[in-house]
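name: query_chain
kind: protein
chains: 1
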Amino acid sequence: MPPRFVMAIDQGTTSTRSILFDHGGQLVSVAQLEHRQYFPKPGWVEHDAAEIWRNVGRIVPRVLRDVGATAADIAAVGIANQRETVVVWERSSGTPVRHAIVWQDTRTDTMVDSLSHRPLAAGISARSGLPLGSYFSAPRLRWILDETPGLRERAERGEVLAGTMETWLIWNLTGGPDGGRHVTEVTNASRTLLMNIHTLSWDSHLLSFFDIPAAILPEIQPSMGTYGTGRGPLAGVPIAAALGDQQAALFGQTCFAAGEAKCTYGTGSFLLLNTGHELVSSTHGLLTTVAYQLAGEPAVYALEGSIAITGSLVQWFRDGLGLIQTAAEIETLARTVEDNGGCYIVPAFYGLFAPRWRPEARGVIAGLTSYITKGHLARAVLEATAWQTREVLDAMNADSSLALQALKVDGGMTSDNLLMQFVADVIDVPVVRPMVAETVSLGAGYAAGLAVGYWSDLEGLHRNWHVAAEWLPAMDSRHREAEFRNWKHAVELTLGWTHRLADSPAQ
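structure:
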């Protein structure tokens, strides 16, 4: 019998999931385990990569057992992973030399500030497609090498290996110390500040700038193409694809044509616009990244806008202020009023990400009067996510000549109908949610299945995509632009906040 399923391993920031999809792109079975979050110092976030690998070893047999499947029923495995998180491990034993440093970690801020004053810093963006920032992998890898005694020398001798989380999983899945493949995938490599975005290879100038020995780095591979075969419960199954989580969501939403875009609304939100084979260098605060690459074909590129605080603002409204008991209640509360009452919330809790990139900004609630109720605040919370989406889309429109026809959305916040309607109103294009909500995992599964012929072509994947809900813009254009001006005025109030505090005289 031919294989019945493809498997996705979705290695996320808080948990790892194994999911089986059938030929219709429908979720058949899922197993999930959370892993511990380590916060050794303020701003530091770490994971135990060994724990994550142990969890994979537990969930893969479980998801197979749930449907009575074996390795023979699996056509291929695809991996989606949290991006920018870095792990270093011993080649001979497979033991991590220390905890992985997570993409949320800010310990390298001072290092990056120092590097930014070097003469060669100005050329980093042109080579990598990314601004010099602590958000990306290279500063974290440099920190591990600098702060772990003797590690740099071991790296130069080839005794230790490094990579992002898909690299760690592929190496272990294909044998670990016993012949495991040390490879990375191009979308993840494009988030390191070490890959040349034009040549799709490690860049000697970038390696020199960050003082990273080439011997520690994995081989860069396309997003789709067999990296090796599995061992254990996946014995003989091709490990056939990997994608960074947001690129996986773009693929799962079948945004295969230039001009198609998706936004994943979670703790933060990530909006990606497919720009086709054209590499668009942003001049408006966006990231140039690889969207995906099929084996033997040129890379497809994307512009990305990262929004730091969206779903976590609702969590703060619930847990920090105690104004609702569950996240779902915010829509009900927001519907008790007709508008925001002149109140705007800018959630710059950790600075502003795209398109402004202002780390010194801090959040504000502007326009407070005695008229404002918790209903108005709830509405302002939801509107903040929509306005941030508008700012990113405006930057994308300014950077590219592509006209967005619709925005495909996924993530937990898309269950809020009021929010999705407001997003459609302020971006003035339809907002569409698919039937299958697990777009990150689905994208990894699609990529793996495509690589081994389980699906024949991209059009076959398109046919699996179906609309679950659609919101059409209905706001008067004059009102929309007036509200947007008010929002931008509120944003201006957040800028330079930590600088002002530092300059204030001691009390």
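note: The first strand starts at residue 5 and ends at 11.
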